[in-house]
Amino acid sequence: MTEPNALLTLKHVTKRFPGVVAVDGVSLEVRPGEVHALLGENGAGKTTLVSLLYGLYPPDAGEIFWQGRPVRIRSPQEAIRLGIGLVPQHPLLVRAHTVLENLALGMPRGFLFPTRGLESRIAELTRHYGFRFDPHAPVWQLSEGEKQRVEIVRALLQGARLLVLDEPTSVLTPQEARELFKVIRRMRAEGEAVIFISHKLDEVLEVADRISVLRKGRLVGTIAREEADKAELARMMVGRQVSFERRKPPAQPGEVVLELTEVHAASDRGLPALRGVDLRVRAGEILGLAGVAGSGQRELVEVVTGLRRPERGEARVLGRAPWSRQRARIAHIPEDRRRQGVAGGLDLAENLILHDYARPPFARGPLIDRRAVYAFAREQVARYRIDPPDPHTPARLLSGGNLQKLILARELHGEPPLIVAVHPTYGLDVGATELVHELLIEQSRGGAAVLLVSEDLDEVLALADRVAVIQGGRIVGEVPAEAADRERIGLWMAGVEA
């Protein structure tokens, strides 16, 4: 029997892939008028579970019930027909089309005039939920928060009674996150259900009614928000106590390691991306660069790491241009781990020596000393808690969290003077996040200059000694971390004078 008041019920649902049980006998219910949070480490099975609900995979065992009736969800279209809507972590919108045209895609409209009659329905929904966006604006002009609202409106237009939000605040300013929470509460008050997937425990405790925790594909437990706290949720997720206190010794800044002076650069489309950026990072400090997506961070990181030459101005690392052959090595923790961070076809050990394969102890003349390589890899795997621990494992098979540990192990080896960390904990669970934060603090207090680029304001405020905000390709504000005000920084990020 299913829970009589449940909207969605899973009973002993299992999904296997070659070599792994991604979802292992999971049973849970989501009730009408409930915000049900789903927590778990990277690789715990959250994404697979959502894929089962949205018809992207069939379960290998178990049953799914919708309003008490057993159902088989064979495709996203069937999920939508039932009333399940998915708002993905990265909005799936056609940038060149308007909001109205994007919302018309997939709707049962006429072929010749697909947007006819749709605009009034959009206006009604946006008024009801307090959304603000121009339906005639092209998507490329929208902020990340506006794109997310468009995805929510799309799901509601399709009749969603259960809305699945996957990491919904990962690219939002604090103000945009608060607006999203208002919408979630409004939906809950009207009897709709929300599955809220996030790694941010504070947000889960703020918005959820009940919280289910997955670990290694299994359901560890479901608890009411009133019975939960951060420490208990983290313990359930990773199976051990996790410290949320960052014992960060005071910075003792030394010489200037990175210096940008009046740097101008264009985007790949030829549009201005950096407009006269001045920035300095000293040895022994962490400079946190905050900003919403598309504010010029990518181009700035490429200039700093030597991947892009500025059109005007100068970029110097220890007094030399970063693309100089004689430059000191820059540790680069890139935004895209799989495409920029590793060579997926090489194994874990080979990826760990990409910078050093031609130098001792890994090189013996023209040959690579495989014994030395794999001995080094085993040491790094143990130190950085990479799983699986076999150094022969192909990098492409690692989860996102373990890929990030591999990249950190490689990039931090040899005490680099400058570390450029771009969204270093994006999508990571609390255990992996704890390790990354500890490593960055350790490196900075050991004398490295750290440029931390993140859209997560909590992370910036937790780690940085100074906070700078980039908006529209310019540095619009800079404050010491101890004087940083969340509201003021959030307004800077949104392009509002504070």
From TrEMBL:
Subcellular localization is given as:
Cell membrane
Q: Name one GO cellular component term.
A: plasma membrane
Q: Does the keyword rRNA processing apply?
A: no
The protein's topology relative to the membrane is: Peripheral membrane protein
> Which GO molecular function terms does the record list?
ATP binding; ATP hydrolysis activity
Q: Which UniProt keywords apply?
A: ATP-binding, Cell membrane, Membrane, Nucleotide-binding, Repeat, Translocase, Transport
Sequence ranges assigned to domain ABC transporter in this UniProt record = 8-241, 258-497
Q: What is its main location?
A: membrane
Q: Name one Pfam family in it.
A: ABC_tran
Where do the TM regions start and end?
Answer: none
Listed PANTHER family: CARBOHYDRATE TRANSPORT ATP-BINDING PROTEIN MG119-RELATED (PTHR43790), GUANOSINE IMPORT ATP-BINDING PROTEIN NUPO (PTHR43790:SF4)
Spell out the protein name for this chain. Answer: Nucleoside ABC transporter ATP-binding protein
Naturally occurring in which organism (per UniProt):
Oceanithermus profundus (strain DSM 14977 / NBRC 100410 / VKM B-2274 / 506)
The organism's taxonomy opens as:
Bacteria, Thermotogati, Deinococcota, Deinococci, Thermales
